[in-house]
Amino acid sequence: MPMHRRARGLRAYSSAVLLTLLLTSLPAAAHATQTAKLKAGFSPYRLGRSTTVKLALDIGVAGSSDGLPAPMTRFQMRIPANLELIGSSLGLSICKPAALLENGPDGCPADARLGLGSAQIKVPVGPEPATEEASIEAEMGPPVGEEIGVLLYAEAGSPVAAQLIFPGVLFGGTSQSLNTAVPLIPSLPGAPYISMVSMKLSLGPDGLTYFKTVHGRTVGYRPEGVALPGRCPRGGFRFASDIAFADGTTVSAASTVPCPARRHR
Question: What is the pLDDT of residues 40-54, one digit of tens each?
Answer without folding.
Answer: 999 999 999 999 999
